Amino acid sequence: MRRWAPDLGDTWAPGAVAVSQALWWLAARPDPRLAPGVCAVAVVAVVALLYRRRVPGPALAGAALATALAAPVVGAAPAGPAAVLLTAYALVVHRTAAVSAAGVAAVVAGFAVTAAASGASARATVATALVLGAVAAGVWAVGRFRRRVRADRASAETFRAAVDGFAPLAVAQERRRLSTELHDVAGHRLTAILVSAGAALRLADPVLRERAIEHAIGAGQAAVDDLDRVVASAGRDDEVGIEAVDQLMAGHPWVRYERTARVVPPAVAALAHLIVREALTNLMRYAQGAAATVRITADPGGCTVTVLDGGGSRAAGDVGSGLGIAGLRARVEAVGGDLDAGPAGPGWRVRARLPWRPGAAPGAAPGAGATPPVRATTGAPPGVRMWAGAGAAVRDGAMVVLALGLSTGTVLLPGGDGPDPLAAPIPATLLVALLVLHALPLAWRRLAPGAALVAALTVQVAWLAGTAAGWTRHDPAETFLWCWWVELALVYAVGAYRPAASLGFAAPLAVAAVGGVALGAGADITGNRAAAGAVLGVVLAIPLVAAWLAGRLVTTRRSRRSTAEAAARETVRRHADSAARGERARIVDDLRASARLHATSALAAAEAGRLDEVAAQARAGLVALRRLLHGLPQDRPDPPPAVAALSDLAARRRSALRFVGEPRSLPAPLEVAAHRAGAALIADGAVATVTYVAGGIGLEVRRCPPVGAEVLRSLRDLTDAASGSVAVDTDRTTVRVWLPEALR
């Protein structure tokens, strides 16, 4: 029963409607025989309003149906129309754009059909549909704005509550970065020292011993240098040429090396270098003495790196970290490639396919089905439908519908004492065209408010000229009063969205001047029209200047809020950087007291010719490094809801994540929405791409298994509340999300 009990916060609206219905009955004193119909509509309206937030669709349908059926009998009773408006608003606030637009459109169509069925003329039916459509568009625009504000506020509160998590996340990311770097470089050097020293000690060959000592000196010094470089680096992979692989293989002459890929992009070459180095390290640890082959071959759209061995003895199998192949697989998948590692006969094989272009399908040539790279441009990533996520632009489109419906519908409504403005076809066509042209500038009032206002005023001037020439038959004063709210909205937009240094203050004065001329030319003006127009223009200037000042106030508050948010973010960033530096210093101390100390001792022993001590110190260094690597990733906190924190989330779920475009500070609601979308989509083994563009942020996730219907439903609701959109491939394995950084 509690499930269907109305919430206490939903009772104010039905109570107000019930009271207004009772007051209407007392004031209007209608025929008592209408009491059953009035009560029935009131009951339906109250019930619909009680459940307008829980089930807004059925609530709107019930209120609209009761109002439409009872309208010919009840007449102007307020309960029905009020319930329709409020339930329609609730539908827009609590449901997606497509669902709410379909719902309010169905209600408008239903009322238009009811009007036609009740005997209204075609012109009256169309006028009714236009006016109701205008009201519905206004309700939809306000509801969509409210939905976005609610979502933004909730996301901002979530972001503020998670601010304390950024420092622990920075510490965890620094740990992971250092663990990867230490495994890639220092582990390889120490393993090579241990294997060569161990082989020389077992064989007791003076020549081999001399070579092992010489190798230990060079590799030991390199290991110390690598450790020092890692702890001082910023965590960026150096892009090396393919020649670095050649130099690496020159130090392993017993491995067969083949390279047919002649020209390799630096990023691909750096990744190939990491793969070969890791494979060689594992080869020395687990397959000493085995015949091995390293191949780098060119493919139509990339290259393939293959390392194959025939099996051998374990030289240092107890000092590995177990993180190498997993880390390499994440890096390879992040650029759109794939990596296989596993048994091959008696030995082991590692094979990685690397595309030339990040994000392309492995081995795909340009134009042969490869996924085009996502570019950091000024729009949504490819495959994302812009109409669903235009945010404020869609609401401005609804404002255009509002302006068109009110003005054109009012003109079409029959009746009135004056002449019919649509009696003659040519003046009627011109009047409707001017109404349409006057409403269209609302569509770009945020993007280009000054140009939009100029366009609207140009239509007004053309209208006055047409009236003076006798082309239209409508009173210019009445026409201006119908439509001047469009100029009022555009003047507000000039104040809110144009730079303060521009001549925005001229906007209300220009509208007041045109309005004064239009009102002074009205049919009801007698005497000196110029003086009357001047006085009326001054009167008009008061609300116009107030609207412009309101816009300036809003943009000033928005600027101050943005500045405060930026300052708060900078404080959080500095705190996180300080925590990361502190963690780096702690790890440096651990390295100096463990792995680096052993590497230095191994170098000193090699310089003194004590090969047995070289092997012992190299092994001790690897063991210390292994302990450090396994200790670093532990006790990681949950990542806070931010775009950068998605990398930690992807690492937890063994997925690959890469960023395209120049990272920048984003509004907190956008950060939270992007994080939640990523958390819903990034599964084990997924490959995700975050794209920074000028107008927002894009997220593409390739995953297996396909995304479920429930996850997709919640994702659509999330992105819709943020004025974004979702595109899904037919097999549901690739999902693209677009989240705009739109103006309210």
Total strands: 10
Strand content: 5-15%
Structural class, from secondary structure content? alpha+beta
Main β-sheet, spatial strand arrangement: 1-2-3-5-4
Question: Ranges with pLDDT <50 over ≥5 residues?
Answer: 315-323, 359-380, 382-389
Distance between the termini: 40 Å
Would you give an account of this structure?
This protein is of the alpha+beta class and 744 residues long. The protein is built from 23 helices and 10 strands. It has a 5-stranded mixed sheet. A 5-stranded mixed sheet has the order 6-7-8-10-9.
Features:
23 helices; 744 residues; 5-stranded mixed β-sheet; elongated
Layout of secondary structure:
Blueprint: H1 12-28, H2 35-50, H3 56-74, H4 79-94, H5 97-117, H6 122-161, H7 166-184, H8 186-203, H9 206-232, H10 243-250, E1 256-259, H11 266-286, E2 292-298, E3 302-309, H12 324-334, E4 338-344, E5 347-355, H13 392-412, H14 425-439, H15 449-468, H16 476-497, H17 506-520, H18 529-593, H19 595-607, H20 611-631, H21 646-652, E6 656-660, H22 668-681, E7 687-693, E8 696-702, H23 709-721, E9 725-728, E10 734-740
Parallel strand pairs: 1-2, 6-7
Antiparallel strand pairs: 2-3, 3-5, 4-5, 7-8, 8-10, 9-10
Helix pairs in contact: 1-2, 1-4, 2-3, 2-4, 3-4, 3-5, 4-5, 4-6, 5-6, 6-13, 6-22, 7-18, 7-20, 8-9, 8-11, 8-20, 9-19, 10-11, 11-12, 13-14, 14-15, 15-16, 15-17, 16-17, 16-18, 17-18, 18-19, 19-20, 22-23
